[in-house]
Write a sequence for this structure.
C-alpha cells in the first residue's frame, strides 16, 4: 500500500520558497513517481485559487492518479478542535 501524505497549502508554496524548495521538490518527485499519494482537502484546493499562478500551475500539472481530494467533515473539525484544546498544535494550525 502506498503511503498517503496530507499536503496543506503551504506545502505547494514550498516548491518556490528557497528555504524549502529542495525538500519540497523531492517530496513532489515521489508523488510524480507514484511512490506516495498527495492527499489534500477541499479547503486546500480553495486556498490555492488565490495562490500565485506558478503554484496553481504546479498543482494542476501533478499526475491526477497520485492525488486524493478529501472533503472536510464534522469529524475532522472535531479532531482539529481537540488538537488545539489539548495544545498539540496552536490555533493558527486550525
Amino acid at each position: 500500500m502506498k503511503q498517503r501524505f496530507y499536503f496543506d497549502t503551504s506545502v505547494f508554496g514550498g516548491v518556490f520558497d528557497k528555504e524549502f524548495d529542495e525538500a519540497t521538490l523531492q517530496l513532489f518527485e515521489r508523488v510524480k513517481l507514484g511512490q506516495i499519494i498527495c492527499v489534500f482537502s477541499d479547503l486546500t484546493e480553495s486556498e490555492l485559487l488565490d495562490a500565485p499562478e506558478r503554484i496553481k500551475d504546479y498543482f494542476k500539472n501533478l499526475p491526477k492518479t497520485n492525488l486524493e481530494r478529501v472533503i472536510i467533515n464534522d469529524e475532522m473539525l472535531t479532531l482539529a478542535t481537540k488538537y488545539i484544546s489539548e495544545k498539540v498544535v496552536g490555533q493558527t494550525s486550525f
